[in-house]
User: Fold this.
Amino acid sequence: MAHSRVLVNLTRGPDDPDRATVAFVMANAAVTLDKTAVVLLSTEGVRVGVPAAIDVIHEPGFLPLRELMATFLEAGGEVWACTPCVTKRGLDGSMHPAIKNVGAVAAIEFVAEDGVSLSF
Assistant:
């Protein structure tokens, strides 16, 4: 069964630029395949949503994260951040303006309705 929705759950932050980068590579692949795609930043992954991190993460062999994220957003993808994860880390008000804060229900509903999830 082909799924029409792809949720990419990113749980690592700037401390793991490889995972952060590959999550956005996979998300870009999903929108290229005309899937409705969301990158969910959770746990330490919310740190990737801070503009200072977006601007400096660049894993060798890949485009910089800022380019991958911009391409993903321009293609219609969405980036969500786990609201409790953001708050726990004191990042309220620090996130990139395109990132939407959500709770667990939004993520579960997105996947439950014809979705698949990948985790990094």
Summary: The chain has five helices and five strands. The longest strand covers residues 5-10. The CA atoms of residues 58 and 64 lie 4 Å apart.
